[in-house]
Amino acid sequence: MFLNFKTAAAAIALTAMAGSAFARDLVINFDDLNPGPKKGFEDAVELFKSENPDINVIVNINDREAHKTAIRNFLTADAPDVTSWYPGNRMAPFVDAGLFQPIDDVWEENGFNEDLAAIKPTMSRDGKIWGVPYSYYQWGIYYRKDIFDLLELEEPQTWDELLAACGKMKENGVTPFTIGTKFLWTAAGVFDYLNLRTNGYDVHNALTAGEIKYTDDRIRATFANWETLINECGFVENHASMSWQDAIAPFANGDAAMYVMGNFSVDGYKNAGLTEDQIDFMPFPTIDASIPGAEEAPADAFFIPANAKNVEDAKKFLAFVARPDVQTQWNKTIGQLPINSKADISDDKFIQEGFALLNGASGLAQFYDRDAPAAMAKAGMEGFQEFMLDPSKVDAILERLDTVQEEVYN
Amino acid sequence: MSHAVVPDTDVPKRPSWVRRNKLAIAPWIFLIPALIFFAIYVVIPIFESLWLSLYEWNGLYNVDGESTAVWVGFDNYVKLWDDPNFWTSLRNNIAWLVLYMLAVPLGLFIALFLNQTVTGMRFYKSMFFFPFVISQVVVGLIFGWFYNPDFGVVGTVWKAIFCEETTNILGNVTFTCSRPAPDILSSPEWATYGIIAAGLWPQIAYCMILYLTGLNNVASDQIEAARLDGAKGWKMLWYVVVPQLKPATFIAVVVTVIGALRSFDMIAIMTQGGPFGSTNVLSHYMYEVAISEYGERYGYGSSVATVLFGIMLFFISYFLWRMYQDERGGR
């Protein structure tokens, strides 16, 4: 399970030899084994070690899915000093069970209240701050630039321009959007953006916090827009049996021209044979010009379990991961965006565009399945998929979501 | 010479309790290891699960290691009654039970068909038995691809009939169809039947092998006698062969019922209960609400498990009762 067993063993052997030289162990659990993210994390840990030679850092790296299960046990049974996890509603069960400790002081001392201001609401619960984020990425529309050029289309800025562009694509036999909703969450990306653009961040937040009903007129308006999008733009057929990776195939083949996705998908396009010149990124068009632009930007963060043994050094590590230079390097390695506003970004065009987009955002949503509690997210995303297959069922779906909402939040 | 032999004055000892009850104790000693494991892994969890279904719990313990569960009594069952997903799952469970039974007659007919002496028969038999040997997960994957409307067999055949090969705007090959290809696994009406069809494939093979062994034991003299009396075809099958296959039929029905109720792996592989929960069955729904990423409602999951347990208990008690009756009848 722990790939770095060897390193750990070596570290323990060293400790034994050096006697009390390494008096302070710092155990960190991390959750990504993919080569890029793993390297980003390990490089950062190396730097931390060289800056703090008196701390003996022990690292456990686990696979993402396995970590989601393991964290439920290790927080009580054998807590590390630092663990990676997700902000928003995903941290809520652990915060409520008292398994994380608040770290307002780390934010205070290091000036994160200013440097990480945009993400602060997401990291807070019950008036306290619970973690420090190290990276996030933007969502938006990835599109085939070559198709847009052939059809002489510009990046649509408004809803009407988008619908007009879709009309032109359909005339030429191109399906405007690709998507794969088999695993449900991709549909939530479309919903989030439609709702953020139709109603704005505050209404969206209130919805995922259970303060607004799904049958509310404002949410109905979102679904009406979604129906327009389905009718006048349209998604690829068979999307319910495709994963998000499967849905790249029609995009790569030129059958579909746009994809509402997160920046992690760029690798997928390149692996499918597309070059940087063929793909480009644009923000989701505005629907109501009076609504300030909010974006979808899921963040990854570090937390200190309540049972951590070495809290002092854990806080030191948390302060370290949010430092501008550390975030710059780390995010260059993993191809994502640093959250610290003082950090630099790489010259990748998607990263540049994303950085500009998120810096101008009035609010950052964490994605539907992190903003809403798990049971609500599941029912909601099933509803979105059902709606995409048959928009005429909207009333039944929204009423059902109201029932689930009532159950989940009370 | 002075040592006179002292006669053995001891009254012969009464054999110890253990010795006296040797015959009664021995089986229990052999049973103890199995009983301990059965208790730990089966019996106690059943009661724990029943107990848990009366709580609301997200599976977490607090810092002091105390469970964060809250007693809610029968609330979970009340919620279950109003939960459309639960009823969908139950309906699908019934569809599974009914349609899965097709495996029994189909297995019988394939067994009859294969029960001949032709060169290479062993090879054919093993080919027919093959689907049962591969894991359910693999069967699910294969059928998932088979049904795929883009690159699967269904899609390819459909394209050949209803679609034209054209080039799209970029000059790449694509297909335009006069009718969209059927997307079985994402249609709420058909997906369950698609999965059941996939499940039937190995189940038929299983029933077939049960019948093949049963057919070996069919008394040939009775067949002869029936033939002399002029029985043939369906009558021969129904009145002479099938009654002799009763034990095989019983086992085939039992494994098929249990197989239908346990249908978890195929659903998890092929649709994860989707589209929007329409292919869920109780076992998968229980997993979904209790331990999947969007679940973590252990109490609610346990109440689903309790309902499933009740259904299984009904069938299993019936089978055990039947077996008991048969044994008494046989004595």
List keywords for this structure.
heterodimer; A: 410 residues; alpha/beta; D-Maltodextrin-Binding Protein, domain 2; 2 domains; five-stranded mixed beta sheet; four-stranded mixed beta sheet; 20 helices; 13 strands; 50% helix; 14% strand; globular; B: 331 residues; mainly alpha; MetI-like fold; two-stranded antiparallel ribbon; two-stranded antiparallel sheet; 15 helices; 4 strands; 66% helix; flat
> In one word, what is the shape of chain B?
flat
Full CATH superfamily name of the largest domain in chain A: Periplasmic binding protein-like II
CATH hierarchy class name of the domain at 83-296 in chain B = Mainly Alpha
Number of DSSP strand runs of chain B: 4
What is the name of the CATH class of the largest domain in chain A? Alpha Beta
The low-confidence runs of chain B, each spanning 5 or more residues with pLDDT under 50, are none
Alpha plus pi helix count of chain A: 20
Radius of gyration of chain B: 29 Å
Strand content of chain A: 5-15%
Number of helices of chain B: 15
CATH topology of the domain at 83-296 in chain B: MetI-like fold
How many separate structural domains of chain A? 2
